[in-house]
Amino acid sequence: MAKLLQTLTPLLSLLLLATATTARSQATSFIYDFYGQKPTDLLYQGDAHFPSDSTFLRLTNTDNSGNPLSHRAGRAVHSNPIHLYQAGAHADFETTLKFTISHTGTASVPGDGLTFFIQPVGTPLGFTGASFGIFNPSGLNPAVFAVEFDIYPNAGVDPSYRHVGIDIGSNVSKNTTDVGGALLGQEVTARINYVQATKLISVQVSAGSESFEVSYVQDLSTFLPQMVEVGLSGSTGGAIAVFDVVSWYFTSTLVNTGAGHIHQYV
Ligand SMILES: *[C@@H]1O[C@H](CO)[C@@H](O)[C@H](O)[C@H]1NC(C)=O
Ligand SMILES: *[C@@H]1O[C@H](CO)[C@@H](O)[C@H](O)[C@H]1NC(C)=O
């Protein structure tokens, strides 16, 4: 024990020093490579499952031949709540997901989409179709932030192209980028980043040789509670596809906003 303490003390001082100099404190990080991994600290809701022979997380159900089913929704939610803000501190976060959306051998058009979302802890599974498993049947949910990868342009409300959109409390995106056919039939990598100092949400997407970007400025603490949970969702409506997640990385760090208030969690 004494020996252990001797070893730990310099390490602890180093940690304290690092915390003090960068004025950073509590952090949450996780990384899942679903290739052969079935994490037990994710909550699987609705359809989300690992097909028996799979190397990925499948968000919506398929039939015995692997064809997607209509009007389904599924989500994987990280089971540890995340501190988004507290007095004098707000979180920066970054997440990277790799996924494929496939639509082969089906007569129906591809739909609906996949999201990364942040919501109050314990919010139940939402509606299918254009609600992506996170919004209610009217496409609203005031306390949800999401980045949607929307492969079905809903006539009259969505832009007329397949898009990546930033959603604040509603499936009507605040900003979108036209992704053409890039989200279909190939691996997509999306990096989502939020910096509390500027309130800038930025999304970078790469698929094959193409890349896309969309951003929006919004203070997340104006509509989300202090403790939140993060997840991935997928849904089909009348339009269908298979939503498979290959890997998911997430990290968040509470950054002190007020000078002289350094919270330590060592
Ligand atoms: C939002 O969701 C509702 C219910 O699913 C749907 O009727 C509406 O078209 C959706 N809006 C967008 C912009 O996708
Ligand atoms: C929409 O995203 C683009 C690309 O990041 C950005 O240049 C533009 O300013 C954004 N529009 C709004 C309203 O935030």
UniProtKB/TrEMBL annotation:
InterPro entries: ConA-like_dom_sf, L-lectin, Legume_lectin_dom, Leguminous_Lectin. The keyword Signal applies. Residues 28-253 form the Legume lectin domain. One of its GO terms (molecular function) is carbohydrate binding. Keywords: Lectin, Signal. Residues 1-25 form the signal peptide. CDD domains: lectin_legume_LecRK_Arcelin_ConA. Belongs to the leguminous lectin family. PANTHER family: CONCANAVALIN A-LIKE LECTIN FAMILY PROTEIN (PTHR32401), LEGUME LECTIN DOMAIN-CONTAINING PROTEIN (PTHR32401:SF47). This is Legume lectin domain-containing protein. It comes from Salvia splendens.
